[in-house]
Amino acid sequence: MRFELTPRTNASVGMRVLASVAAFITAFLIAGLVIWIMGRSPVAAFDVYVLQPLSDPWAIQELIVKATPMALIAIGLSYCFRANLWNIGAEGQYVIGAVLGSWLALKTHGTDAGFWVLPAMLLLGIVGGALYGLIPAFLKTRFGVNEILTSLMLVYVAQLVLDYLVRGPWRDPKGFNFPQSVTFDPAATLPPVFEAGRVHYGAVFAVIAVLVTAVVLGRTLFGYRLKLTGDAPRAARFAGFSSRATTMAVFAISGGLAGLAGISEVAGQIGQLQPSISPGYGFTAITVAFLGRLNPIGILIASLVVALTFIGGESAQILLKLPLDLTQAFQGILLMCVLAADALVSYRIRLTTRGGGK
């Protein structure tokens, strides 16, 4: 006997919504069981992880700040994933975008440069991320190299470049030998949306990216092209869509948004270059993209949910002495539950014998 999956023909939107709710509840139950095994109260953990951050105005601002780069990167990744192309190197594109945009901030440091500096930094960040994203796209289309491997390996190249710069030529000479650049001038800093607040304009960029992507993917020929390329590559070729052009386009878009996230985070949240400017946003955004089912609005919601686990995880580490790695484990459990729920909605499990009978 064996289990087989047969496609369902009547999977409704309501079923998918209920499946998502069930997946979240299951993930929380599994996480609660793990916490109970570790000798902590699951109820107290739920309070620290979820309720306290949502009831604290400062924590809500931090929630938006952490969700911003993940939303931007995940929106970019959705272009690749919809076309069945796998950009695993958004973390490297994030870093290179931050590096190239910061170059202008350091070049104009102390020169009383005008208002043009910040827009130029953002543009350079987009260009840097896009060009870095085009490297695995070019290798795939020209030489047939697997984009998963090349995009992933380029992450470590980008991180080593950043580490070299902040420890070498870009290190602050008055920084007491710490590996960091000088603090950016106000003209090179992304201002907060509200005075004395923590949320910077990177959050506005994320919302704009969500709205634009919703229109592009849902109401344009390019969006249809990505869907057709991902679902039926042969049909896309018969329709005259170039797989090479599609690959280059989606990797450029994906890298550009990751680069925008990088320079927005450095200019808005950190204020200088450091050896580590990301806790793994580029990799976490892959989870966010699939939790949001590659839907722009879903990605925005998923980024807030994952950001909540970051905030709650930091609080649980302090208040409940729970390891911070538990946060990453929960994110993985959540993704597995969502994927399993999707599979159960899309397919029917059937038990068959070797002879083919039920």
Structure description:
42% of the residues are buried. Helices cover 70% and strands 3% of the residues. It is mainly alpha-helical and 358 residues long. It has helices spanning 13-37, 42-55, 57-82, 90-107, 117-143, 147-167, 202-219, 221-231, 233-238, 243-270, 281-291, 296-319, 325-346, and strands spanning 2-7, 347-352. It is globular, with a radius of gyration of 22 Å.
Biggest beta sheet summary: 2 strands, antiparallel
Low-confidence stretches: none
Given the C-alpha coordinates, what overall shape results? globular
Number of strands: 2
What's the overall average pLDDT, rounded? 91
Helix share, percent: over 70%
Structural class by sheet pairing and helices: mainly alpha
SS field, number of helical segments = 13
Q: Give the strand order of the largest sheet, numbering strands 1, 2, ... along the chain.
A: 1-2
Q: In angstroms, what is the radius of gyration?
A: 22 Å
Amino- and carboxy-terminal Cα gap: 9 Å
Helix/strand order, N-terminal first: EHHHHHHHHHHHHHE
Can you give me a brief rundown of this structure?
With 358 residues, the protein is mainly alpha-helical. The chain is 70% helix and 3% strand. The protein has a two-stranded antiparallel ribbon with strand order 1-2.
Essential attributes:
358 residues, mainly alpha, two-stranded antiparallel ribbon, 13 helices, globular
